[in-house]
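Sample 3 of the quickstart, ligand 2-acetamido-2-deoxy-beta-D-glucopyranose:
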Amino acid sequence: MTRYLLFFLTIIIYIPKISSIDSKSPIIFIPGSFCSLLEVRINTTLQPSCPISLHNRWIILWLNLRFFEPEFLTCFHNIFKFIYNSSLNSFENPSGVETRIIYNSINDSFLNDGINIHSLPYDFRRGTNKTLLSFNNNLKQLIELTYIKNMNKSIYLISHSTGGSMILFFLSQQSQLWKDQYIHGWISLSGNIAGEIDNIQNLIQGSLSPILTRDIFQTWDFFAWRLPEPMIYGSERIIIKTPTKNYTSYDMLNFLRDLNANELSLIYPQASSILASLPAPNVNTYCFYGVNISTPIGYISKSDQFISNQLETIYGWGDGEQDDTTNMSCQLWKKTMDIKYKLILKGFDRVNHLALVGNDYVIEEIDQIIFS
Ligand SMILES: *[C@@H]1O[C@H](CO)[C@@H](O)[C@H](O)[C@H]1NC(C)=O
Ligand SMILES: *[C@@H]1O[C@H](CO)[C@@H](O)[C@H](O)[C@H]1NC(C)=O
Ligand SMILES: *[C@@H]1O[C@H](CO)[C@@H](O)[C@H](O)[C@H]1NC(C)=O
Ligand SMILES: *[C@@H]1O[C@H](CO)[C@@H](O)[C@H](O)[C@H]1NC(C)=O
Ligand SMILES: *[C@@H]1O[C@H](CO)[C@@H](O)[C@H](O)[C@H]1NC(C)=O
Ligand SMILES: *[C@@H]1O[C@H](CO)[C@@H](O)[C@H](O)[C@H]1NC(C)=O
Ligand SMILES: *[C@@H]1O[C@H](CO)[C@@H](O)[C@H](O)[C@H]1NC(C)=O
Ligand SMILES: *[C@@H]1O[C@H](CO)[C@@H](O)[C@H](O)[C@H]1NC(C)=O
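Result:
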């Protein structure tokens, strides 16, 4: 989990590297999970675990290291999770908690021209139709605006990790005519397009203990959205083994129930259907992955109840975080995408999930795509 914190810094270093070049095509960057800034406003009367000093003013929720200090940690746990509303069948902010995304944070601090390069943040805890469609509206607006500001030059989308899933859903919702006009190409770095095996571990153990607990994660619909996709992971491969059960990607609903993540299991059917067909992007597409690094490809739980310290990881190959299989989503488009669009897959030897952003070979490759 510290790697996410490190990664946040990487992003900040990476963007100016590209921006220093006077690009022919404008670029819009969609970051990975945990790489957007969120703000919160708390009514401490309704959230008494939060100190009164935080009452009713906008403060940074993520990434705010102060919240990790012992006296703020309980407050943080209570406000960073969602509460399930059964009449809406959705997760909502707890009462007395409002959150918002900080737009332009990267733009304002690190990019001077604001014309050629943009980055669009999002609430990485979410993964429902409603939240993704609202991201789509923002992205569409930003693309159209950037296009006009750059004398009608079409855009390169660059994404990292979950940003790739965001873009694929976005593209799936646009008409071909619109895409042909506005999108020059999409470069996906370490895209978790077919979901991630290691999200299972996050749901069982949380992350960066004691900061992101499993109780928090089990209220993020993101995790219902981005579990391994059946279309790619299939019904043969055992992803989790317990003393009495084997779970494949087709058994994720049962896994959530057996984990006792009941509310998340109620969200799973709709969230997991959003990208289930892995639609072809139908734009020039470049899928870049790190390869040849030991990576979780499955788990063995010694307890049927998924007690968090009784989890053993099975290792195979990937980028250290995502296993190789997730690249099969791009392979699939060789068959399903209109051949008039480029489709290029490339593995980068021993470049890990986070290092792919900012890696010199990758940047060189991106330069070649954008300037050729
Ligand atoms: C906070 O919540 C209390 C109790 O519901 C309410 O009376 C008060 O008006 C709220 N304060 C603000 C600033 O919204
Ligand atoms: C659930 O949402 C409905 C509709 O917004 C609202 O009226 C109700 O108070 C919510 N329930 C809870 C428990 O917050
Ligand atoms: C980025 O910053 C520039 C200059 O500060 C500003 O004009 C522009 O509106 C910002 N970008 C977006 C997406 O608003
Ligand atoms: C850009 O496209 C719009 C319509 O899509 C058109 O009205 C405008 O004249 C074009 N601008 C340039 C600089 O080509
Ligand atoms: C789980 O799969 C293994 C093969 O990996 C098999 O030997 C075992 O019998 C299966 N267990 C159950 C409960 O189906
Ligand atoms: C989510 O939205 C898409 C596009 O509007 C729609 O095709 C799909 O049926 C929706 N899924 C659910 C589960 O509502
Ligand atoms: C894609 O994954 C397959 C195995 O699923 C692996 O053999 C191949 O090297 C991977 N390709 C890239 C470009 O990562
Ligand atoms: C991965 O490692 C194998 C064995 O060392 C090597 O043959 C292969 O070229 C590597 N893959 C990439 C994409 O570099």
